[in-house]
User: Fold this.
Amino acid sequence: MDGIVIAVIVVSVVGLVCGVVLALASHFMDVPVDERFSKARECLPGANCGACGFTGCDGYAKALADGETTSSNLCVPGGDVVAKNLSKALGLTFEDVEEKVAYVHCNGNCDRSKDRAHYDGIGDCRSANLIYGGPEGCIYGCLGFGDCAQACPEQAICMDDGIARIDVRKCIGCGICVRTCPKHIISLLNVTSKTVVQCSSKEKGALTRKACINGCIGCKKCELNCPEKAIKVVDNLATIDYSLCNGCGKCIELCPIGCLKPGHLEMSHGAQQAL
Assistant:
């Protein structure tokens, strides 16, 4: 009986000593938390997407707290709500967020594009791309295995008829799909973009048509007839200068292939019409 009592006393004393040591360590080794960091972090959504240009929400909050940046509008997924909260919490000037959505620059669906090889390997885009650029006839086109769809935190991407499609009603503009795509055919566009190019091929017209009849042939009709000189054909592919484009739609009417599509004016972030 005495042995049990002694054991209980020893365990209690050891527990008490450990508790005192931990309390002292917590007091003397405590790292003070920057109040500005805490305020900024509370305002951010926690998506950790990196769209702000920093290493996730903690990185952006630390940059705000340290004065590395004073821009309150870098959180695209959070939109104007987060920007206003950051401005209020940190005493910053409110800046409107340029809301963006992802867009897939490819329309080489199963009916319109051709395969140049049979692929029987790991079922993801990154792996397929390592084998001579993948099995698709167009080496610039969507591989269709859905790496972007799996990476999307909002389930805004699905695979439809062999290519990725983005539901812009769900897209928060985080840019994770942009960084995931090994073909680099996904980009973030402002929701006010008036015209989009639904192709990424840089091959000459004849080679593009051989691989995909929906591809840009670089005919320059859009470039030559754009009243604002907002379109130029670079490396056999139409490119748009959105600072000049006024959305007149003339290029869309003249494109013989139909790879120029209308954008959507003044879409509210997270509730846009499908492209």
User: Anything to note?
Assistant: Residues 265-275 have pLDDT under 50 and may be disordered. Residues 35-90 form a domain with the 3-methyladenine DNA Glycosylase II; Chain A, domain 3 fold (CATH 1.10.15.40). Residues 2-28 form the longest helix (27 residues).
